[in-house]
Amino acid sequence: MLKILDDESTIRRCQRQFIRSLKPYVTERIAVRIGHPGESVRANVFWAEIPGIWYHSKAVAGGRYWNAFGIGKPAAGGAVSSTIEINIPTLSLDRKIGGTFAQDDAGKVFLVHRGKIGGRRGVGKSLFEAHYRGVWTEVQDGHTRSAVVVIGDLHSPLFVRQLAQFVHKIEAIKDLGVDDDHQARIFFDDERFRGEFIGGRYVPEGRDYASECDRDLAVLDLAFRLREAGARVKNNLEGDLFTSDATGQATAIFEVITGTGSPFLEKGMARLLFRSLNLPQEPRRFLVVPGEMGQEQREVLLKLGIHVISYAWEMGTAVFAGLNEQLVG
Fold first, then answer.
1. Which residues contact 36 (CB under 8 A, 6 or more apart)?
2. Is it the case that residue 181 has pLDDT exceeding 60?
3. Could you give all domains of the chain from N- to C-terminal order, each with its CATH number?
């Protein structure tokens, strides 16, 4: 189980690493006014063209690091509102502050968030909990336990992508509005692939948080590659990725897993077979696995009607070997 960090010097070191990881992506420094409830302040924000977010960070009164993030390049001298503040307590535990750092048993540190989001009326923790899909977990939070979402592995080369994905998901949630019927929107008005649906809403046991965060990015990259190949790419409320024909019927379903050991394969196989039940037409099934898989394993899966696509990470992006060949095979 992850444990919330509460040592002042450790928190300070993690905060420095948090902001240091963003600096290589900064393309411009822009003077703006940042507005938040009750006031606005003059500030210089840093625009990171890739991955398309801006941020401002400093220590402020009240024992916290103020880390504000937004989407889209701000206009110089203009006013901006942050999409999300991932504020961090400076001294110890403070459950009133949304962001914090947590460590696993191996000493790996993750940026996590308690779901405290703000904005207009109707935007708050309850909206977040109802709609956020991602890496949820329970953490040791001092003498109690709390539910949080894991944003990313602080020292991973993919951390900035993980962070940007979180910011974009929050933007999508806040766009829902207090009276919006999310389910109706997805199934009737907006039947397409949505990045904010990637991830889960439950807390499984036996976690590799770094791999789970990486998996969400692999799903995004796979959706992009499928669109490049001309496929109609969609996902549902559970985040399941599939392609469809012109009538909306599923033609292929994809399950991305993070390992090739028996537990990963069994779970991936079961989900693919379960997802294909009761569909009007038989879809092609694809298990998307990290690294190479032995020929014997591939043949066993093929007997179940499951094709294998391998992926590897190259310069922060998931690359899928033989994807186009598999799609036309």
1. 68, 81, 82, 85, 118
2. no
3. 2-180 (no CATH), 209-328 (3.40.1350)
